[in-house]
Design a protein that fits this description.
The chain has ten helices and 15 strands. With 382 residues, it is an alpha+beta fold. Helix 2 runs antiparallel to helix 3 and helix 3 crosses helix 5.
Length: 382
């Protein structure tokens, strides 16, 4: 009985897997166990060869049919020839990996093999949009100017002069790709890259447009209107589809990514969807109580200060903060009371305060002394 693992199990797929899904599964595992990503790792190398063997058999319709019918033995016990596990050479496995259109970009995260013509799409653009807390609280419509590439008017984005034609690229001979062969410790390496002359198109223009030099696009400045929802914060971004650079020679445009930056506010500090402010009031208002008008993000509002309000007391103004971006509701405005102590008094004011200081009402109670002393000890960890 064969001790070899099932090929479908090795690649983690079902027997009815499509060719496209089979290739995706092979690529994922081959990249994971590739020798260049796992140097001097014999176990990873063995897995890489095992994966290559399984894919070579299942990717071939005739071999796959025979494997489904006869298993590893093949028809008449003949096996699958050069793909017997243990007999496959690492260079064969690496060559298969490259021939599938994968390269160093797949292994190390760069731009590996590309489909022909895939680089026609325009690049994305990124801009930063600074907003005040007031704009964030209500939402805003902003207009910004951006420099971007737009379709050339002279050639209507084709990149070609009038009556010109396209010809096969002389560098890649119409394939859109060039292959570089090099030798490594593991044998022959083939790196497939996009053709630098035709940029993967496989064709070049015989007479390029004089305005855009064959790219089909020119630089311009555009005014973009952005609708900003209420409740955004720094780090949020708004994708604007199709507002990036135009693609080459009729390719689709990229996107514009608008990153939100929150301006520092002179009064408020944001904490989530709540806003915090400090309200200085005089001692008489703190002692007697008062109604004070305070600023909010949407105007002014009155807040009631109870008699005997202590310094540091925080008063909450419901739904005066910032709307929740993902869901209903609005944050609150928190008002911290700060009792103002005057630094310059007239003689008459000093006398009045001196008279008041003789009253016991203006001295802390014993309980007050005790509470203050306890807080002092806690602060010093006594």
């Amino acid at each position: 009985m064969s001790t070899k693992r099932d090929y479908y199990e090795i690649l983690g797929v079902n027997k009815d897997v499509s060719a496209e899904e089979l290739k995706k599964a092979y690529r994922k595992l081959a990249v994971k166990y590739h020798p260049d990503k796992n140097p001097d790792n014999k176990e990873a190398e063995a897995k890489f060869k095992e994966i290559a063997e399984a894919y070579a058999v299942l990717n071939d319709p005739q071999k796959r049919q025979q494997y489904n019918q006869f298993g590893h033995a093949g028809p008449g016990g003949a096996g699958f020839g050069g793909f017997d596990f243990g007999g496959i050479d690492i260079s064969d496995a690496l060559r298969q990996f490259m021939e599938q259109g994968f390269g160093f970009g797949d292994i190390f995260g760069g731009g590996g093999g590309r489909k022909r013509g895939s680089n026609r799409r325009g690049s994305d653009l990124q801009v930063k949009l600074r907003l005040t807390l007031e704009e964030i609280a209500t939402g805003a419509k902003k207009k910004i100017k951006i420099k971007k590439q737009v379709p050339c008017q002279e050639c209507n984005g084709s990149g070609s002069a009038q009556y010109s034609r396209t010809i096969s690229c002389t560098t890649c001979h119409g394939s859109g790709e060039v292959r570089q062969v090099s030798q490594s410790l593991f044998g022959q390496m083939i790196n497939v890259t996009t053709c630098p002359r035709c940029r993967g198109e496989g064709q070049t223009i015989e007479n390029p447009c004089r305005s855009c030099h064959g790219s089909g696009r020119v630089n311009d400045t555009k005014l973009i209107e952005i609708n900003v929802p209420a409740g955004v914060s720094s780090g949020n971004y708004i994708p604007m589809e199709g507002e990036g650079n135009s693609g080459q020679r009729g390719g689709s445009p990229g996107d514009l990514i608008v990153y939100i930056e929150e301006e520092r506010h002179p009064i408020f500090v944001r904490r989530g969807d709540d806003v915090i402010m400090v309200l200085p009031i005089g001692f008489p208002k703190a002692a007697l109580g008062s109604s004070v008008e305070v600023p909010t993000l949407t105007g002014k509002a009155k807040i009631n200060i109870a008699a005997g309000t202590q310094p540091g007391k925080i008063l909450r103004m419901r739904s005066k903060g910032i709307p929740h971006l993902h869901g209903a509701g609005i944050g609150d405005q928190l008002v911290q009371i700060q009792v103002y102590v005057p630094t310059s008094l007239s003689s008459e004011e000093k006398k009045k305060l001196s008279d008041l200081s003789e009253s016991g009402s203006f001295e802390p109670t014993k309980d007050g002394h005790k509470n203050i002393f306890e807080k002092f000890k806690q602060a010093l960890n006594i």
